[in-house]
């Protein structure tokens, strides 16, 4: 048999190349169609009748309460600007996202939005004009709230004074600044849903689950995230690093960190209401949550949240605790000197603290956690408990970052984590440099 001549070989090659290109185009078209379909799942058609939405004073008041539960003002209010007028920069690993204007301004806010538009944003993460919203707006949690509660929040926001502050463009790196990339993320990481009560649990627990998993969006901080920035629902509230301020939100499923399974329920309510309780106090980003949100919730809802949090299943740490390394005598000696000079006046010579003022450091689980980033943040930058009705003049921690260098902070924290019966791993300068 004679070999194929060159013109014949070229023709076959062209046909194969065309077939391959057609296959690639077809696969790309199918992928695009799949992404579009996944981004449209669960969306209800908009109804023109929603433009006739009217609210009642009771609905507005209910919406105000729900907006507090969701801490909406915390993200949608920039320092020195009007409440809910947006403009606050939210740092993410992909760039900075700026919160939007939620006042009823016709041009820049939600003045031209219907209740259905607002529901679609809460439930599906889509703006009035159809654009996909970034999940810094925690619609993966808000999707669980009811239409009734969404309408109440909408009614409240529409009752606010309009503010003409323009929305700031996000500052995201390519390709994260594209709708195409966001559509792929949503197709992989988001599906609209609703809260499904657990019939095996009492009504109080289900109410607490609804508040915590939905408007409370606790998983946004206390959940771990994958490489795409999506919360890992399967791991629940097992702890995660907050990229906004580089604090660690401790696990709510582990009694070694921030779990409250062994607490009295009234102390859980007290912590959420006042920021402090016999078992611990809130600092950092959680202090802001109590200040802006949970202190205003009624005791019935706080008790429901406590009931839910206390029944969270214990989740084992992803990795076993690191073995304790023998502490360097020189480090311990330097740390003891710094503690005596800077810390003992408030926290006591034996780390016993002062009831009602300064927390004990001996046996304190915040001191003993494997992840010591919050301790470093506190010593460097200081911090205050939130000022609440139940604790209007809280004591605070002054910053020491301007008088202690990284080695000195590592030394004193290593000494604290290894004294008075504490037995947590030392902190080195390399740990400090990573934070």
Describe the protein:
42% of the residues lie in helices and 6% in strands. The chain is mostly helical and 435 residues long. The chain folds into three domains: 142 residues, Cytochrome Bc1 Complex, Chain D, domain 2, CATH 1.10.760; 108 residues, Cytochrome Bc1 Complex, Chain D, domain 2; 105 residues, Cytochrome Bc1 Complex, Chain D, domain 2. Strand 4 and strand 5 form a beta hairpin. The longest helix is centred in the N-terminal third of the chain and has 35 residues. The protein is globular and about 90 Å long. The N and C termini lie far apart (73 Å).
Total E-strand runs: 9
State the low-pLDDT regions, or none: none
Give the N-to-C terminal Cα separation: 73 Å
Structural class: mainly alpha
SSE order and pairing:
Elements: H1 6-40, H2 57-69, H3 72-76, E1 89-92, E2 95-98, H4 115-124, H5 139-142, H6 147-158, E3 171-172, H7 179-189, H8 203-213, H9 219-222, E4 240-242, E5 247-249, H10 265-274, E6 276-277, E7 280-281, H11 285-292, H12 299-310, H13 329-342, H14 344-347, H15 365-368, H16 373-381, E8 383-384, E9 396-397, H17 406-416, H18 429-433
Antiparallel strand pairs: 1-2, 2-3, 4-5, 6-7, 8-9
Brief rundown of the structure:
42% of the residues lie in helices and 6% in strands. The chain has helices at residues 6-40, 57-69, 72-76, 115-124, 139-142, 147-158, 179-189, 203-213, 219-222, 265-274, 285-292, 299-310, 329-342, 344-347, 365-368, 373-381, 406-416, 429-433, and strands spanning 89-92, 95-98, 171-172, 240-242, 247-249, 276-277, 280-281, 383-384, 396-397. It is globular.
């Amino acid at each position: 048999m004679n070999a194929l001549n060159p013109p014949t070989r070229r023709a076959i090659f062209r046909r194969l190349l065309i077939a391959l290109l057609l296959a690639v185009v077809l696969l790309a078209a199918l992928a695009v169609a799949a992404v579009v379909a996944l981004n449209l799942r669960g969306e209800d058609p908009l109804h023109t009748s929603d433009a006739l939405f009217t609210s009642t004073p009771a609905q507005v008041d209910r919406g105000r309460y729900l907006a507090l539960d969701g801490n909406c003002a915390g993200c949608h209010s920039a320092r020195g600007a009007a409440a809910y007028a947006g403009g606050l920069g939210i740092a993410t690993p992909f760039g900075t996202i700026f919160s939007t204007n939620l006042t009823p301004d016709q041009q820049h806010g939600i003045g031209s939005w219907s209740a259905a538009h607002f529901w679609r944003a809460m439930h599906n993460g889509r703006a009035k004009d159809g654009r996909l919203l970034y999940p810094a707006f925690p619609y993966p949690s808000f999707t669980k709230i009811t239409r009734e509660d969404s309408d109440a929040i909408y009614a409240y926001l529409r009752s606010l004074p309009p503010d003409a502050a323009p929305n700031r463009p996000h500052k995201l790196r390519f390709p994260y600044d594209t709708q195409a990339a966001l559509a792929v993320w949503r197709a992989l990481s988001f599906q609209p849903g609703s809260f499904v009560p657990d019939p095996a649990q009492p009504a109080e627990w289900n109410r607490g689950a609804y508040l915590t998993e939905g408007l409370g969006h606790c998983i946004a901080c206390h959940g771990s995230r994958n490489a795409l920035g999506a919360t890992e629902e399967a791991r629940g509230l097992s702890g995660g690093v907050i990229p906004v301020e580089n604090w660690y939100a401790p696990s709510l499923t582990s009694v070694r960190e921030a779990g409250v399974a062994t607490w009295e329920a009234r102390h859980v309510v007290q912590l959420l209401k006042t920021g402090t309780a016999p078992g611990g106090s809130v600092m950092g980003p959680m202090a802001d949550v109590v200040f802006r949100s949970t202190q205003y919730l009624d005791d019935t809802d706080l008790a429901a949240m406590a009931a839910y949090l206390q029944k969270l299943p214990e989740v084992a740490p992803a990795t076993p605790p690191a073995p304790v390394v023998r502490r360097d005598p020189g480090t311990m000696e330097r740390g003891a000197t710094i503690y005596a000079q800077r810390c003992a006046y408030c926290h006591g010579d034996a780390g016993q603290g002062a009831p009602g003022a300064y927390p004990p450091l001996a046996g304190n689980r915040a001191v003993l956690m494997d992840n010591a980033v919050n301790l470093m943040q506190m010593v460097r930058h200081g911090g205050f408990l939130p000022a609440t009705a139940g604790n209007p003049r809280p004591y605070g921690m002054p910053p020491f970052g301007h008088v202690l260098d990284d080695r000195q902070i590592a030394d004193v924290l290593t000494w604290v984590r290894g004294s008075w019966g504490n037995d947590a791993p030392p902190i080195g300068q390399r740990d400090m440099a990573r934070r």
